[in-house]
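Can't attach files on this board, so I'm pasting raw text. These are the components:
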Amino acid sequence: MSLVEKTLRKLQESGRAPSDPSASSAPRQTARPEGESFRSPQAHAHGPMVPIERGALRAAGLLAPQEDLQVLVRQYRKIKHPLIARAIGRGAPRLEKGYLIMIASAMAGEGKTFTAVNLALSMALEKDLRVLLVDADVAKPQLSHVLGRGDAPGLLDALRDPAMDVESLICPTDLPTLSFLPAGTGSEEATELLASAHMEQLAAQLGKNDGQRVVVFDSPPLLQTTESATLSHVAGQIVVVVRADFTPQPVLLDALKMLEGHPDVSLVLNQSMRTITSPYYYYGYGADRAAPPGGG
Ligand SMILES: Nc1ncnc2c1ncn2[C@@H]1O[C@H](COP(=O)(O)OP(=O)(O)O)[C@@H](O)[C@H]1O
Ligand SMILES: [Mg+2]
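---
Top answer:
Structure tokens for the assembled complex are below.
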């Protein structure tokens, strides 16, 4: 079992323990703002418990095979630290809305869902950080299906009914620092709902009551849907996933044009060991494999 698997298991086991840290002898985290005690997402999440089944995630191609995990763990560590820094102001100025992180890409099949899952899991290993993974790919809610919440109320339902408390739809997971908001039900007016002004309020609400919460949005492709453009206005940080040897350069440039003016756009080169440089932030990551897996 790899180190990351062991750590995830430990977290899952500790998730069954009482979440009140005062009941344990664990040392208090110093990075936390004074006066704020650490609460697990369970303190906020009211939906049914969602187990993070590594087998199901792996079978869906959303978790790297065992032999590639160590490489990915190192690469995700590099990716997450600057994002966390800007999200909660740890070692860097805190960005306005920096806790709302959108995982985007020009086209489908570039690795948005893979990146959202692996980044969220990697972030969930951080102390004094709570991670909310949101399935905002309402047209193709793969994540909700894989996590067994395909028919559950979620983001769309909260958008449809502004009186609804979105926190009541958030599902705790068996990782004490990770929670999940499914895409929700009904899809006819999904585009309009995601593009509504209420989306902005809802996103802000997701982080308002909890200064240690980072929200990771899995999203639809920028060039193939209109709702992702709206989401990009809501997010404080955008990570554009670029699949190596897959995305034609003009297509990527078109997608980046849509994000012009956004203060914080990073690029992740997926499924390649190369790291490239540009005016944007680039991170190379991916498994060192002879043949990359097929696109979705
Ligand atoms: N870094 C990676 N290593 C291994 N497989 C990956 C990686 N990134 C994506 N994949 C695979 O590529 C396919 C498309 O990824 P996915 O995250 O579903 O793309 P998107 O959400 O952008 O449509 C999936 O089969 C996934 O398993
Ligand atoms: Mg996807």
